[in-house]
């Protein structure tokens, strides 16, 4: 990655709770990036976003640049 580190990436759904009369949930898809030093970044992607293993490195770098560091 551009920071010079080595990163792994996984594609994962996370459940966002929506508080309504009916207990419903909205599933969002994220790419989670994990660095060797323990740093984590995540980026929400479209529901039909392809598996990261099938993407060129340049596409993953673009998503990584936009990824946030969860608090």
State the share of residues found in helices, binned by percent: 10-25%
User: Within the largest sheet, what's the order of strands?
Assistant: 1-2-3
Number of domains: 1
Major beta sheet, specifics? Answer: 3 strands, antiparallel
Structure characterization notes:
The chain has one helix at 57-66, and strands spanning 7-18, 24-35, 40-45. The model has no long low-confidence stretch (mean pLDDT 84). The chain has one domain (7-66). 14% of the residues lie in helices and 42% in strands. 6% of the residues are buried. It has a three-stranded antiparallel β-sheet with strand order 1-2-3. A hairpin with a 4-residue loop joins strand 2 (24-35) and strand 3 (40-45). It is mainly beta and 71 residues long.
Describe, in short, the structure shown.
With 71 residues, the protein is mostly beta strands. 14% of the residues lie in helices and 42% in strands.
Give me the secondary-structure topology.
Elements lengths: L6 E12 L5 E12 L4 E6 L11 H10 L5
Antiparallel strand pairs: 1-2, 2-3
Features:
single chain, three-stranded antiparallel β-sheet, about 70 residues, 3 strands, mainly beta
């Amino acid at each position: 990655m551009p920071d010079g580190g080595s990163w792994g990436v996984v594609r994962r759904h996370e459940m966002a709770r929506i508080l309504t009369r009916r207990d419903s949930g909205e599933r969002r898809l994220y790419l989670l990036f994990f660095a060797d030093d323990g740093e984590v970044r995540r980026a929400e992607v479209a529901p039909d976003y392809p598996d990261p293993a099938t993407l060129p490195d340049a596409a993953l770098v673009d998503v990584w640049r936009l990824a946030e560091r969860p608090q």
